[in-house]
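Standup notes, structure subgroup. Blocker cleared on the cytidine-5'-triphosphate input:
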Amino acid sequence: MSSQPRKIVLGVTGGIAAYKSPDLVRRLIDRGGEVQVVMSRGAQQFVTPLTFQAVSGRPVRTDLWDEAAEAAMGHIELARWADAIVVAPATAEFLARLAHGFADDLLTTLCLATTAPITVAPAMNHQMWANPATQANVRLLRERGVRFIGPDTGEQACGEVGVGRMVDPVRIAEEVFTVRGGDGPLKGLKVVVTAGPTRERIDPVRFISNRSSGKMGYAVAQAAREAGARVVLVSGPVQIPTPVGVERIDVESADQMLAVVQEQVRDADIFIAAAAVSDYKCREVAREKIKKTCDAFTLSLTRAPDVLATISRSESPPFLVGFAAETENVEQNALAKLTSKKLDMIAANKVGDNLGFDKDDNALTVYWNGGHKELARTSKLALARQLVELIAERYRLSKTDRKATTAAAVRAQ
Ligand code: CTP
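Run returned:
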């Protein structure tokens, strides 16, 4: 794990979520951080500098032109002092100014002058977050290595519901202190993970689905993120929070999941399919609610796309990891799927018997061509971390094998 930040500049910009930032200061200090708060002008409309001074134990910096503060520690010195800059909440306007290299106040100047990693926790109305201008700024900042925590989905201060809430301070502090900052075994790699069930519509109010809670897939996404990967989580409808630092794309049906995954795996290194995708969908979705007009009723189903198998058949698939949830003949069924879907690895578990779906614990046997490993029953997160270590190991070996094969082919020419 890379060294943890001790000296943190916490930037607070002008959004209503600023009322949560004093709590974040506490959480960062609880974890051993020294926190220097820097507030934008807008932030001071929501919370007073005195509040931050009281919780951080340090005078708050608000102005680039404050002679006394500059004499004590100039802004360039402050930029050097910081091991990490965390901006929470980060408004759409702040992201825009950061993306375009503005240095017209203390916080933007510090961000330009520092060599420390910058982490932002955006908070804004969901339409502002979805706006193409904001999304373009987010892409630019991500490319330059700015780390994003959130935003979360949920009810917003404006009363609307959507993506734009600031992530909870406890989780921001956790991410600032525990993520390996790209130093783990999946450093520099993009990992796409599917999780949760899918829903196949019958009519406007009914659907076919299954008991998957998404817990295993979410744990795998978190573990891959902790191991340093950039993680995109393609999720069916579930009731669990997005792991910190993970980019989540929500889908409903198998067809939607396939479309998003096809787009996302183009530049991915590893694809982990943990979703319980529906194997069948309705041949026709009723446009109006179906009425109970007769005693018996038959639904006509047709095959839904197999997301994993489709990616496996594509021209240059990434390293492929599947899951197999089985009620019997676990090994035999898992090995059959490993071969038929041309996977690099498959993680098999027995469902039923108080194991598997919707439980916090799980046990897995992981198979690959020529080997297997048992991962004993433990929490899904602990299990996911072991699985990710194993995936990283096999992925590295696959790259060395491929290089050796290519070298041999070149020599043979
Ligand atoms: N999978 C998928 N798309 C589907 C079905 C499965 O991507 N339509 C993926 C799952 O995410 C999992 C793997 O394929 O990684 C195996 O899923 P499972 O449902 O156990 O196997 P199936 O291939 O559907 O076979 P069966 O239901 O007959 O056991």
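Discussed briefly. The mean pLDDT is 91.
Next: hand off to the docking folks.
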